[in-house]
Amino acid sequence: MINKKHNKTPFFTKLKEYGKSKVAPFDVPGHKLGKIENDLIKYIGKRTYLLDSNSPIGLDHLNKPTGVIRDAENLMADACKADKSYFLTNGTTTGILAMIMSVCKANDKIILPRNVHKSVINGLILSGAVPVFIKPNIDQELGIANDISFESVKKAIEENPDAVAVFVINPTYFGVVSDLKKITDYAHENDIIVMADEAHGAQFYFSQKMPLSAMEAGADISATSMHKTAGSFTQSSVILTLGKRINHQRLRATLNMLQSTSPSSLLMASIDVARKTMFFKGEERIAKLLEMADETREKMKDIPGIKVIDKEYIQKKGCFGFDETKIIIKVSELGLSGFEVYQLMKEKYNIQLELAESHIVLAILTIGTSKKDLDRLYNGFKQLSDDYNDVRDKFPKVVFEYMFPETYSRPRDAYHAPKLIVSLDDAVNEVAGESVMIYPPGIPIVIPGEVITQDVIDDIKFYSNKSKALQSDLEDAMITIVDKENWTKFSEED
Ligand SMILES: Cc1ncc(COP(=O)(O)O)c(C=O)c1O
In sequence order, what DSSP letters do the residues of 203-222 get, joined into one string? Predict the structure, then answer.
């Protein structure tokens, strides 16, 4: 039965009223509801500025909602079968930091896959938690890290019964999901909190055809990017919680520590309306999208030199499940790297893909994806194949061991340690003082506190040659290491 209360958009409705109310604004923001001139107002119009307010009377406070923000958050929680939701205006990045910092104290153990987003590593630094890393399933053919098996989580819990949390990615950037229900049940039997990174999983809440959402699986807390796959503005996300294990006072205090005291009303309104659309239209639109995605995959399978990944492939690789709104395309048989194809598709056909790895590229589909755009995707790859198939040598096979580096200290200890900046070649066997990653996907090759092996250096060099997206805080070919000689490790309590 469709629940009529979801027709309401409490925050957006009030915000519109406020914008039209002819108020004399002696508060911030300084554009005074669009009463200034600039190029952006000329371009987008004053109406957008009328919706940019900073907690005037009647519009509630994100830091302690008691009015229309609370009402909008309650609807969000209801739509996602959660007990509570918190709107976020600095993305799932803040949600992840807040989840980890509110659940883990310094030196608490948290069990997590190593292929986590950099915000998780930063959560470890800020909280002082000790990571117990699990090796994810590796796809040697595609060169990507996927889900984590139930057995690997069970083993980690058995070996670390004092762990306070298990962290699961639902789904990975590439759409692969773990058996979250089984993991959650086992963690709960052992009195361990389950948190989920659902940066790429907002659509799971709005369609039965999607893998299980964290809340359906019974997880305690999740950070979900409404902006990535549910149609709200960039940076707008939510935290969802279920059950009694989460300390809401601590979560609220942590969020208020991390978030701005001037949250964007536009972002909050965009979550409010995205929830309404997804609630009423998500099921039907996602079903339609999946049909179109299937058709596109089937057609693309006939293009020589490329391989399109489907659910069957993912399951054959032993992974638990797959979000079919992701199209993964292996391109290396064309003799091109994923990084080259990512550039070529934009330059030649004006097609913007989500990300590249050495052998693959990824296209993300949402209810905003049209048949026309999918046809362009197909035609772009067809053309690419016509141009390159059997022209170049095939790319060498993937060598992707994913032996993540040995841990020398907690990420927090290494973060606070005295540092040296050295060339990559001088860093072998030293302890990393920074995270180095390619973005996207933003999964670190090395994190603070890990030992920099020759493999790590080779990986960093490989990616800095192939991808323009290598991110470190430094110039190319340099890296921050811990100055071990001058390092007094933090005490266990810090
Ligand atoms: C797996 C994963 N987790 C978390 C994040 C952070 O999400 P947001 O961009 O909403 O801050 C991202 C962003 O790309 C991500 O890919």
Answer: GGGG-TTSPPPTTTTT-SEE
Residue 157's identity, in one-letter code, is I
Nearest residue by C-alpha to atom 7 in ligand 1: 92
258 CA from centroid of ligand 1 (Å): 16
Closest C-alpha to ligand 1, atom 9: 91
Residue 94 CA to ligand 1 centre (angstroms): 10
Cα 492 to ligand 1 centre (Å): 30
Q: What is the CATH number of domain 411-486?
A: 3.90.100.10
Q: What is the mean pLDDT of the chain?
A: 94
Spatial distance between the Cα atoms of 288 and 78, rounded to a whole number of angstroms? 24
Classify domain 61-262 at the CATH class level.
Answer: alpha beta
**Nearest alpha carbon, ligand 1 atom 14:** 441
Query: Is pLDDT of 49 > 80?
Result: yes
- Ligand 1 binding residues, C-beta < 6 A: 91-93, 96, 117, 119, 169, 173, 197, 199, 225, 237, 440-442
pLDDT for the residue numbered 404: 80
Pick the CATH number of 283-388 from 1.10.3720.10, 3.90.79.10, 3.30.750.24, 3.90.1150.150: 3.90.1150.150
Take residue 401 and report the two structure tokens written for it: 């061991």
Instruction: Measure the CA–CA gap between 461 and 476, rounded to whole angstroms.
Output: 9
313-335 residue pLDDT tens: 999 999 999 999 999 999 999 99
* pLDDT tens-place string over residues 172-224: 999 999 999 999 999 999 999 999 999 999 999 999 999 999 999 999 999 99
